[in-house]
Amino acid sequence: MGKILVLAEKPSVGRDIARVLNCSRNGNGCLMGDKYIVTWALGHLVTLAEPEAYGEKYKTWNLADLPMLPDKMQLVVIRETAKQFNAVKSLMMRDDVDELVIATDSGREGELVARWIMIKAGWRKPVKRLWISSQTDRAIMEGFKNLKPAQEYDNLFRSAQCRAEADWLVGLNVTRALTCKYNAQLSAGRVQTPTLAMIVERENEIRRFVPKDYWTIQAKVKGFTVHWKDKRSEQTRIFDKAYADSIITKVSGQAGTVVGVKRDAKTELPPLAYDLTELQRDANRRFGYSAKKTLSIMQRLYETHKLVTYPRTDSRYISDDIVPTLPERLKSIAVGPYAEAARSLLRSKIKVTRRLVDNSKVTDHHAIIPTEQYVNLASLNPEERNIYDLIIKRFLAVLSQPFEYEQTTVLIDAAGEYFYAKGKIVKSKGWKAVYDGEEMEYEEDDDEREQSLPEIREGETVKMASVALINGKTKPPARYTEATLLSAMEHPGKFVEDRNLRETLESTSGLGTPATRADIIEKLFDSFYVERRGREIVPTSKGIQLIGLVPEDLRSPELTAKWEQQLQLISRGKADAGKFIAEMKKFASKLVADVVAANETYRHDNLTKEKCPQCGKYLLDVNGRKGKMLVCPDRECGYRKSISILSNARCPECHKKMEIRGEGEKKAFYCVCGFKESMDAFKKRKSEQVNRKEIVKFLKQQDTKESINSALADALAELKRKL
């Protein structure tokens, strides 16, 4: 009987599968057993060929040679990982290997990884597919008992290949056209450019914004605060100060009559389970993590610790077959801070609703939830613990009862003007008990903040005390953070006027997919189109100019979302891959023509007086993700030099983060407040701080114990006095 070759996406996953399949003998890039041989990729081993593969003329970048439209796209082995590809190919060529199991990530890109390797290696034998949502031993064993015919995923591969070829056709053609036309390192892409366009448009809105003064009125009544509102429009802001002053004069010192006391029983349902984008948003809001960092942490929790299910999902629901596993998942997390909530759910019968279980809303993978793997919280580093905490609390909240409360709304008429207040009495904390003591995004806005209200009856007369006029200014729209940018990418419909197109956008995954959005945002930083200011994302001059140079068609979220919709249809066998690529070739040709015909100019406004040591061109001063850099504008040169790195070290005077500048012995810390400190002085100061803290901590511990009469105790006491 022949052997079965198993192809995983990464060595770590390959080793886990090998352990479950009893493959313990080391081979060349593989682990072998009696029945199975497990090998792995290193991410992609094969990729689409560069333009040079289609002709000598493409080795140099010339506008006249565009567009580049190969009849058939070629695959090449990635040079850096060629050794592992050769190992995989040699295993595929073995006479005793009769069957292949694709065990790469269960998604579009994972399918592409395996299929391209198979095509390039010339695999012609039977193939099956392992499709699992977690990496626990049980999930792997169950998966191998229920292997799927690989043909079921042929359309998924076609959609993945179309995505890759579309990116090549559009991205490389427009990038070469822009770079040649404007003699600058410029690039564009089918998702990257509309995303940048949103950031630039937001910046333009902020620059155009003119703040306006407005006033609100509030008063004290029986120990609580009431707010004025317009009788007709119910607006609380007044933009005419004279009118606001007249209301103050009218109601000050007057008695008001309670004209309405309304009590409503309200219910707030639990939030939906996490998909990747929602998790990335929360991680950015709570911890300041980038989308890419969150995904990286999630991959470790999924692959290394096996504590959570497949992260690259766009679904916030689970399917019926997962429901029987919920008790065991709760048992696995019934530790530490989660024990009480998990055990409480286990004691009561778990009630699931369509808000959690909905087969029709589960795509390739269900929502992110914990696995049945027992968790040792001590094995997680702080970052992993933060993300795990988000997932577990959301899982517990989803399974909990609704939050129930009684809302009381009081309406007071004072001299013909209306004032209102809201109060809340909690009846059952429900799912919000999971988040006790935490600031939550679900809380009300300041204007709607609840307060404790005394017993009050309709018809009661109250005195309007401390009537105050409060001045405010309208604020411009906020700059994007990674959290809000992810939301905008997921739901770009609001940027589209056409109703039908807007509905189309909302029915697809938006700009990119949950798996690709983090890399798209990182690419904008790496290309110096945007930079971070705190948590805000701000477009650079280069990014703003690029949006003015890129053909209008490529800036539109409408078109990009339509492509993603087509890719989804291809993955379901409802659209033709060949037709899609033909349309992409036409589109690439049009984009190149638009760039060639444009009359715009590009200006480097960040040129320095320092010349590139390799090519002699003047270097550009840019803000990279980790600090300031000097970058050569010549694409073929590619010279880069770090000028300063933003450190985590805090200034001892103003407590802001300091920059590290210089090299070798000249390396030093600099702060915007003017503070400067050499590296040696910094290390000495930090060492003294650590020693001081350790001594104080030790002395505090001694205070809780019986006094010791010894020379050591006397010495420590003297030291404590000096400290």
TrEMBL record:
Site positions per UniProt: Interaction with DNA: 61, 168, 176, 312
**Keywords, sorted A to Z:** DNA-binding, Isomerase, Magnesium, Metal-binding, Topoisomerase
**Keyword match rRNA processing:** no
Give an example GO biological process. Answer: DNA topological change
Record's keyword annotation contains Metal-binding: yes
Q: Which cofactor does it need?
A: Mg(2+)
Q: What is its EC number?
A: 5.6.2.1
Entries under Pfam families matching the protein: Topoisom_bac, Toprim
Question: What name has this protein been given in UniProt?
Answer: DNA topoisomerase 3
Origin species: Clostridium thermosuccinogenes
